[in-house]
Amino acid sequence: MKPVRLWIGLVLLTLGVFGVLDATGVLDGAATVDRWWPVVLIGLGVVAMLAARRISFWPAVICVLGVVLLADAQNWATGDLAGPAVLLLIGGSVLAGLARHRVHVPVTEPVAVFSGAKAVDRSTHLTHSDVTAVFGGATLDLREAHIDEMATVDAFALFGGATVVVPQNWRVAVRGLPIFGGYDDKTTGNGSLPADAPLLKVNATAIFGGVEVTNDPK
Asked: What ranges do the domains of the chain cover?
């Protein structure tokens, strides 16, 4: 998950720098972004595969889509590539729907980029885990995991939703950074649990998205 966060942070930082340079008259920031914005998609697809530690379908489609749109923005092609880009997305959606019913790849740290992901963590001594949702939904199910004393989860949602499912005998502490988004602790056991019950700390970052911690998966 951290490569995805790193890439998004770098993109936002770069946009801020271009804005400052544009405002000071150093360069035409809008024209530069207009020509190179597809690089964001290419990088997002690459870092999503790095975070998942495998070459997966949707991040690969995003990379190809970014290359097609970059060629269009740079006028490398003689024709309009917008139509082929739309067909690429539609065809990818159809194939992804078929593959979802045929293949299941176990993941302990779900990363959803323009898609959905769900993982069950069965760690016997859980200390840390991650869940990332970028333009999609990701669920991390920890009900079969065991905490000795305390564990942490980093949950990141950008234009998407990240859900952490925990057993009722865990204490939960949620904190984070909501930017045009939010996080919500919907667990029910904290008030009646002993002080020595296992503690899960959820560090939530929600940017135009949401992070939810619950005992009941949807």
From this structure: 2-102, 111-214
